[in-house]
Design a protein that fits this description.
It comes from Cobetia amphilecti. This is Oxidoreductase. This protein is α+β, with helices and mostly antiparallel strands. The protein contains 7 helices and 12 strands. The strands form 3 sheets. A 6-stranded mixed sheet has the order 2-3-1-12-6-7. A hairpin with a 2-residue loop joins β9 and β10. The radius of gyration is 34 Å and the shape is globular.
Length: 226
């Protein structure tokens, strides 16, 4: 048990083996360098993204405005910021807006803003209601003229993403309403609301056709001007 030759046979096996240590060190140095480069690129990207998201132009595009304040992106007289829930967004060929960007201004309305515009009352029968019903709201042609100088086309979008195209000749030749009220009451979603494109059917019986019924969109949420 105490033979010195035995110790010489055992002790070399007890030393740690260092074969390949230099190669592993080189690999770890490369891994560390790659991680450092990746971290630097990530930091640069984050700084650039933050600068674009929070630049003065980006913040101005979506910043809320006080009632009556001119929107910095509008080309002429502008709209106040909505004070209630937005029920209508107008986009496309918009020249007077209160939201969006310099390249693509948008006009957003709450119900109070729509009802502050000159409105009409149209009493008429419709294919979707019983008896003669009174609807009120702004004329579509006045709404389009309020936000656009050069609209050539009009598309109406509903809450379920249904889209109908309305010729501008329709809203110029007839008193087509964007109705906000039925018999003096605001319309819930389950009853054509909150907004309903209404043609004056009783005053113009020729409008009672399939094509115009297709254009009489209810549950309106947006307009696109072209």
């Amino acid at each position: 048990m105490n033979d010195p030759s035995a110790k010489r046979l055992v002790s070399p096996l007890s030393r740690p083996v260092n074969r390949g240590h230099g190669s592993r060190s080189s690999i770890w140095r490369k891994v560390a360098l790659a991680a450092s480069v990746a971290a630097s690129l990530a930091a640069t990207l984050a700084t650039s993204l933050s600068a674009s998201l929070f630049s003065p132009a980006a913040l101005a595009a979506e910043a809320p405005l006080a009632t009556g304040e001119r929107h910095v992106l509008a080309a002429n007289d502008c709209l106040p910021a909505p004070s209630g829930p937005v029920v209508l967004t107008v986009e496309g060929a918009v020249s007077c807006g209160n939201a969006g960007s310099l390249q693509a201004p948008r006009a957003r309305f709450d119900l109070a803003m729509l009802e502050a515009m000159p409105s009409r009352v149209v009493a008429t029968h419709t294919p979707w209601t019983q008896g003669r019903v009174s609807f009120s709201g702004p004329l579509l042609r006045e709404l389009v003229a309020r936000v656009s100088e050069d609209a050539r086309g009009l598309k109406v979008r509903a809450l379920n993403d249904f889209v109908a195209e309305i010729p501008l000749s329709d809203i110029e030749d007839f008193d087509v309403l964007l109705a906000t009220r039925r018999d003096g009451e605001r319309m819930p979603v389950r009853d054509l609301g909150p907004l309903f494109v209404l043609y004056p059917f009783d005053a113009h019986p020729e409008l009672l056709n399939e094509q115009v019924r297709f254009r009489s969109v209810w549950q309106v949420t947006g307009l696109t001007l072209e």
